[in-house]
Design brief:
Length: 190
């Protein structure tokens, strides 16, 4: 069987193989999101096949948050006692945004791209506020320039999968820029 699949792959042009892979990813993601939306709490274990399906279906494995981090984000979002702040955006924004919507809390994240907007709309995740803000140079570090005037007064949970180590100062700027908005005892996942 493996030999047959290998031969079939070698006969198909790469564009056809990519198209088939993308259709498969879409199907896997759609099915996984249905299961996730029914019971987010059932997905909080790392190595959970549901999380793996979501990561694969999202189609950005090299940059996407991985299953252990996503499980932690989900677990903490299920118990956060107020709005959630995210430093990056992507699959975690969709999953945590769905939980935030169900719990009636806000989720703030930087804007990523049209794909994120499309999926938030598709799954009617209205709890997410996307901030289209560029990185700002603060001297010793670079960080998003948050719209503080319109943000909640305090965040009990911060998800910081974004601001890669290649960003000047890495994630150091989060504390400096957002200090006044972090609730005492704030949990920061990175």
């Amino acid at each position: 069987m493996n030999r047959l699949l290998s031969n079939a792959k070698s006969l198909l042009p790469w564009r056809v193989r990519n198209f088939i892979r993308e259709v498969h990813r879409y199907f896997v993601f759609r099915q996984a999101m249905r299961r996730f939306l029914k019971s987010p709490e059932s997905s909080i274990q790392p190595e959970n096949p549901l999380i793996k399906d979501l990561v694969y279906g999202w189609g950005n494995e090299s940059s996407s948050a991985q299953d252990g981090y996503l499980a932690g984000c989900i677990e903490h979002a299920l118990t956060a006692d107020g709005p959630i702040l995210e430093c990056g955006s992507g699959l975690s924004t969709i999953l945590v945004g769905a939980i935030a919507k169900a719990r009636g809390i806000d989720h703030w994240a930087p804007e990523w791209d049209a794909k994120l907007q499309q999926y938030l709309s598709k799954y009617q995740i209205s709890s997410v506020t996307l901030c289209a803000r560029p990185l700002r140079d603060y001297g010793d570090f670079s960080c998003y320039d948050p719209p503080l005037e319109s943000m909640p007064e305090s965040f009990p949970l911060v998800l910081c999968g974004g601001l890669a180590s290649s960003t000047k100062g890495s994630r150091f700027g989060l504390i400096t820029v957002m200090r006044a908005r972090l609730k005492p005892g704030c949990i920061i996942l990175h």
